[in-house]
Structure formats: C-alpha cells, structure tokens
Amino acid sequence: MTVEKNGYRPRLKEYYERELRARLKDELELSSIMEVPTVSKITLNMGVGEAKTEAKALDSAIEELTTIAGQRAHMRRARKSIAGFKLREGMPIGARVTLRGPRMWEFLDRLVSIALPRIRDFRGLAPESFDGRGNYSIGIREQIIFPEINYDDIQAVRGLDVAITTTAQNDEEGLALLRGLGLPFREREGTNP
After folding, report:
1. 9 touches 105 (CB < 8 A)
2. What is the pTM of this model?
3. Which residue did the predictor score with more confidence, 89 or 85?
C-alpha cells in the first residue's frame, strides 16, 4: 500500500484495499485481484442556465463547486449555438471539476456518510442509473446538502450532477463495487427481497 502526502490515507481507500477488494474478488468470481473494479474518477458538473444573462451566477456556482470538491472548478462554454435557448457558441454555461486520487476518495466518503443522508425524503439511489459499462450518475437537486456550503451565503439553490467512473466491465460489477463502498441503493423494481 502506498502512503499519500503527509502520511495521510483516505478512510474509504483504506477500507477498499484492506477488506472490500478481496471480498469483491470472491463475490464476483474473478481470477485475479487486479481484475477487481475500482473507482477511477468522479466528475462534478453544475449547469448554470442563468449565466447567459447574469455573470455573477456563474461566479457563485464556480465558487460553490470549488468548495464542495476541494479543487478549483473550471468554467464550461457552449459547444454550439441553439437559437431556442438564446445560446451562442462559446457562451459560459456551467462549471465542472474532475476528482482523482485522494480527493476523489474523500469526496466519495463525504457523499456517502454526510451528504446523501441529508437529502429530504431520501429512499435510496436508483440502481437503474448505470450506463451499461459500470459507471454511475447521480443528480442532486440542492447543493446545500453538503455541509461545506454555508446556507446564508448562497444566492440560489442549484443542482449538480455527480458521475462516478469505475473500471467495472458491466453494471453488476459496478453495483457490487459501489454498494460495497456504502452507496445506499434501493431494491430494483419487480424483485422480491
């Protein structure tokens, strides 16, 4: 096992390497420990539609996303013009940040243990949100579920997308990995518990 900067290792990464990896190898009936899926990156994306008329909205969104991720968020620009949305190519329309390494593990730990339980009327994550290759997407309606965001300082409640990219070969492996890491999935529709 490698030691991160300053001798600190994220708690969730420690758990994955010490316990979960070997358990997943047996559970998924893989021949090598190197075949066990892992999380490769987490991408946070916040669309700011009102940025085309109000520049401060984009600045506050970038600041909030930076606070949530612990890493500087980048402005995203429109790739092509869409007349129906009064959008021109090159206009700023959102913010994005990609997390890897220790920051990724820390964010995933905070998401599972702190942020998701703070969602109102939360009944579990939908297991249908996998993309077919083991990657999972979560749509969060309010950025205020993260404790880093001061409720008094926000100008508008915005949603964000969290895309968890894994090395899993299929959705079943991805589901087993993320469930093992603590993501609370609800039971699939039409299955008996």
Report:
1. no
2. 0.86
3. 89
